Amino acid sequence: MTQERLDEFKPTRYFITYDFETVPRIINQRYRSKSVVNGIEVHNSQQHTVLEPLSVASTIKSKYENKKICFDLRQESFIEKWLEQMFEEAKQLKEDNQYDDPEIPYDISIPVLGYNSAHFDMVSVIRYLTNPLWQITSYLKDFSHIKRVEVKYKITGVTLQLLDAMLFVTKGTLKQFVADFGNGGKDEQKGVFPYDAINIDNYNEILSKSEPFSKEDFNNELRKESITGETYQIYLEDSKQFKNKWDYLQYYNEQDTSIMIKPIENLIEMNFENGIEIFNYISMASCANTIKYKIACHDFDLNSRYINQNDSSFINFIPFNLTEEYWEQKVNSYKQQDLRAKRSIRNNVQESYFEKFAQLIEKGSCRFCKARFTNENRPTLDRIKNAIGHTKDNVRLACVYCNVARANRYDRITRLKIQLKRYYLSETIAENPQVQYQFELHATTNIIESVSPYTQ
Predict the structure, then answer these.
(1) 455 — pLDDT class (breaks 50, 70, 90)
(2) Degrees to nearest 5, angle at CA 68 with 253 and 91
(3) CATH no., domain 297-454
(4) pTM of the entire structure?
(5) Which CATH fold topology does 6-31+43-278 show?
(6) If 0-12 CB within 10 Å is exposed, 13-18 middle and 19+ buried, where does residue 384 land?
(7) Would you kindly state where each structural domain of the chain is located, as residue ranges?
(8) Which superkingdom, per the lineage (predicted)?
(9) Which pLDDT band, with edges at 50, 70 and 90, does 36 fall under?
């Protein structure tokens, strides 16, 4: 938007999906333990288990192909090897996601999406995300429920953002997610796996066998569920193409990552139709919030001249009256600001400059939005060069909003934020001052973030 090249804006279309398969490990078991409660003998049985990673698979969606990979417990340090491969694949995806014009910046981390991964998958992988080769740079939520985490490879600088695709949809199963957002193809069917048939003690023995699982192996005693005869026959047909159950596990694990591709692609395009980059956001609600503000600003033009007819500059204009006390406070404030930033204060504005600046303020206006100064729109001194302090030759008058809007940002971003402010005021989108402030804050932030590759 700031570059006036929105017609070239495109979303992140190349990403990675992943999924872990697990086996239970019994960590505390009491079978028919006996205790006496109020003189009555009580027999209890209980068992506590934890889930251990058995395998991890990914599908890499690149510009030219969908590539599947899988690592399992038979390989030493298989999770680290998987992560190493992710960073290697991400180098190509970063290139695929770039704009054709190298002048257009693109710096979004490569998305690595699981489904309902915030609860288990993230917990399984989090311990491996800091080592001599890569490190966590940011994360969302706490370490027991991580919705998003960014990991940077120290040598290449490639960054992965591991996140949960469920952030962008309503809660449900992977099967439902694929049904709701997929294309309904045969290759989008979720497979079946007998989780209750294996555990940490017998997994290798069972998975090394060539004969297929029995129908009873798919029974879930806890939920009192079993698969239908039709589903079991489909499994039997699928199993014929595999040498052993390890190969079937790989197929099943990879299939769970493969069926995520189309639904995620469709989510990307659905949001792109509304002009936003989905991976700039943390939830379905934040995407909807941005779309709401973009609709409210549908006729915004970066080059239009917006005038607020209710501005006090037009109605009974009373210029801001600079007092010596106010000027003294501002001079001291700028001095402290520069000292904190370790900037030289040798040639800073002085209290003796009062008369000169009083005249400038009375007749002048904001260097950015051109608004005159009033008691409601007070003047400040904005530094022209941010590396230099508040010297007489390095400051110009600016209203508070425009000074804050500029901060250390690029001039184009400053121009966009200020133009948006003019638009809100001219359209009187929010009459209540507090509501208007909130609208300006959220709408400006959301519109800029929705097209972040253009904000430099």
Answers:
(1) very low
(2) 130
(3) 3.30.40
(4) 0.76
(5) Nucleotidyltransferase; domain 5 (3.30.420)
(6) exposed
(7) 6-31+43-278, 297-454
(8) Eukaryota
(9) low
